[in-house]
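INTERNAL AUDIT FORM
Audit reference: QA-55
Scope: verify that the stored structure record matches its stored sequence.
Auditor: D.O.
Record contents follow.
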Amino acid sequence: MSNDPIGSALHNVGRIARALEKLAEQHVPRNDKLSQELRQAKAIGQLTLLVGSQKLRALWQSTEPLRSETVASASPTPEPTTEPMTAPWPDYDTLSGSEVAKVLEGADESLRQQVFAYESATRGRRSILDGLGAA
């Protein structure tokens, strides 16, 4: 798949235009006046696409810094801790979110708080944090 969404869209528009031309050739009786109007409409459409795509590309390129900022801000950097976090139990980091949730089903509040603090400071898995918040 192309990284150029505008180019991809234009390619698809071109495919649709060619399909419509074939359809018209097969099902519309030959008529010189109609053929001339279709050629004019096609030329106007091509010009519109050319000008529009140039403007859209310029707009797309001008928003690149904004799109990059949005991606960067969507992944906040965790605040550094003064001391390293210790996992709530020895094999905690090898477990999946659903496995941790099963262990927490019968856990006391102290362990639940440890898991919440550790998970918040490390991997931040939503399945665990949401489950702890709901309890």
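Auditor finding: record pair retrieved intact. The chain has a mean pLDDT of 77.
Action required: none
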